[in-house]
Amino acid sequence: MARVWTFGDAVNTDDILPGKYAPFMVGEDRFHRYAFAHLRPEFAERVRPGDLLVGGRNWGLGSSREYAPQALKALGVGAVIAKSFARIHYRNLLNLGIPAFTSETVPDALQDGDEVSFDLAAGTVTRGDEIFQLEPPPLFLQEALREGSILEFYRKHGRFPGEAP
Amino acid sequence: MRPPDLAGLTLAERILSVRAGRRVRAGDLVVVDVDQVMVVDSIAPSVIRRIEGDLGGRVRNPERVSFVLDHVAPAANVEVAKAQADARRYARERGFRLFDVGRGICHQVLMEEGLAQPGGVVLGSDSHATTYGAVGCFGTGMGATDIALAAASGKTWLKVPETVAVKLTGTLPAGVSAKDVALSVIRELTADGATYASLELHTPDGFTLSERMTLANLAVEAGAKVGLVPPSGEVRERFSVPEWLVVDSRARYARVVELDLGALEPVVAAPPFVDNVHPLTAFTGVHVDQVFVGTCTNGRLDDLHVVADILRGKRVAEGTRLLVIPASSQVLEAAAADGTLSTLLAAGAVLGTPGCGPCMGRHMGVLAPGEVCVSTSNRNFVGRMGSPEAQIFLASPAVAARAALSGTLTLAEDAALPERAVA
Fold first, then answer.
1. B144 CB near a chain A CB, below 8 Å?
2. Which end of chain A has fewer surrounding CB within 10 Å, N or C?
3. Are residues A49 and A10 in the same domain?
4. Tens of pLDDT along B365-383?
């Protein structure tokens, strides 16, 4: 079972990983221990692989720092579901292969500490006998995600998804 | 190739249509060539690892890649020093441009070096790459993976953004600056009001290049992908602007906001969000421990002039410190040559190496719990500049200088303000 961690609106990249704990400040092997260091200091210690982060509006606003989602990846976060995402962070999440889902209703339905199961392929979150359906990502991104990521797609095909061979 | 039909397109659509070689509209996906890929020191290790580890080590156009060591410059600890040594070595080996410690802040440096041009596409590994929009260049920030892909392939994928147009009319009152305009625009739009969009900022022709940079720089704080200022005035005099890079009156905008410059007043973004914008007068009397003048938003020569004019012949208040970090070595040299630095030093300012300084809380100038900082920078998030219990107010250089002088947030007396005329 995955645990749900809920956050509010406008969770920014300084919240996700404060700048002073960037990997090139504290080391590649330990920076992820400081995820949400100011906002939820217990997070890095207690999060389990597969857990879901649930946010409100404008999740990930702020810096382009990819090590914010890298920290989440290092901790094994299963997916991020938010009402809306900031642009750069959304690209970064998908580039790292962290599923990011936009939903108006699911964030309000889930509560902090909920035990759920999450099915990436089906885009569903299940709590008890309730099933929450998430919208699939755009087609262009699905094409990339089928290869794992846009990085993988480019490496394999020598072009971007949607680009003429 | 026949040029695409650009009738009725926004600036963002025009740039991406010309670059893609076909007419594209908001919502279309394009893969386009990139003129310059900019990498800062803090992202360089990830970018190098992606290029060498994931992408086979090939770089399409090394002359189109710039490394800028600015985020923690000079190095603050051994980890940073090692990462910067690797970045320096790698840039030299691969034939990338290298702007080493002290040259300045990435966006300022790329503009000074002419690497962002009207109608071009420039990607930066820093969110404030929107700054290049000051000259009508499609500048946008991306993370390490996208940046590495762009360096390796010479290209990037983009969804053509819809456009939010901001039409600025009238004349700015004395003592009200481009920073006040930018923060007022963000107050109007909110922090996600232009998410995924191109923010097209129509300024009066008299707006200087520096003022346009301040506006474009802060576009990302409304969530924008780019902040494009139609080239006119100083930009047309100093840059070669393609004939197609013009505002089309038939262009379709997702939203149009009109702002009368004459009605604006000095404002601050109060902690902890950039869109928490209020008249400065709402905070009159708040004690200020540190004033920071610098960053890619407001660390240019004209910004230092404003501060020096207010501080000339006076001293920074007891109990308040003033940290000034010029945005680049060129700004530093010019400020030394014209006496600005002497004025600032005589007033008690502390100088830092050109670079980002304490803007993201990594070194020189971080705040203690309970401290209040007035900063000319672009973010005031919790813990941004050190302690999460510190507070950051974002303000114009004039408001910052006045805070340094009085030790509190306070409105300038009109007489003390420099003359300013924008048609």
1. yes
2. C
3. yes
4. 999 999 999 999 999 999 9
